């Protein structure tokens, strides 16, 4: 199942939600945070798993993430897109976080099974992450 929703607000970036469920022997596959990062990076994304953060829910692990820029224009400041990655014990927790994220017009949110990535900005790098998540959902 793949869902996409777009929402805009005055002065805010578009919200893109990609929700994917993977089936494995009748059950949804789950990922560790590192496994998810490794798999999207195998798709050409440059996602870096950062330090663990304090989670508000015992059923998830929360990490800082950075999405490296695809390229840097001459004279521009290098800057990665910051965000967070939540790895839930069960995919249902990820569904709930995705619903909460959809209420914000200035965040980009991506879900694959039990993983939710929330980014504070977009661009081609975020689009690449969306394509990688979509590809992984089809595997």
How is the main sheet built? Answer: 7 strands, mixed
Q: How helix-rich are the residues, as a percent range? A: 25-40%
Please tally the helical runs, counting DSSP H or I stretches of 4 or more residues: 3
3D shape? globular
**Mean pLDDT level:** 78
Return Rg in Å. 14 Å
Structural class: alpha+beta
- The largest sheet has its strands arranged as 1-2-8-9-7-6-5
Low-confidence stretches: 1-26
Distance between the termini: 12 Å
Number of domains: 1
The percentage of residues in β strands lies in 35-45%
Q: Can you count the beta strands?
A: 9
How would you spell out the order of helices and strands?
EEEEHEEEHEEH
Characterization of the model:
By secondary structure, the chain is an alpha+beta fold. The protein has one domain. About 25% of the residues lie in helices and about 35% in strands. It has 3 helices and 9 strands; from the N terminus they run E-E-E-E-H-E-E-E-H-E-E-H. The strands form 2 sheets. It has a 7-stranded mixed sheet, with helices on both faces. A two-stranded antiparallel sheet has the order 3-4. A hairpin with a 2-residue loop joins strand 3 (about 25) and strand 4 (about 25-30). The protein starts with a strand and ends with a helix. Residues about 1-25 have low confidence and may be disordered.
Give the helices and strands, then pairings.
Layout: E1 2-7, E2 15-20, E3 23-24, E4 27-28, H1 33-42, E5 47-53, E6 60-67, E7 81-88, H2 91-101, E8 108-112, E9 115-119, H3 124-138
Parallel strand pairs: 2-8
Antiparallel strand pairs: 1-2, 3-4, 5-6, 6-7, 7-9, 8-9
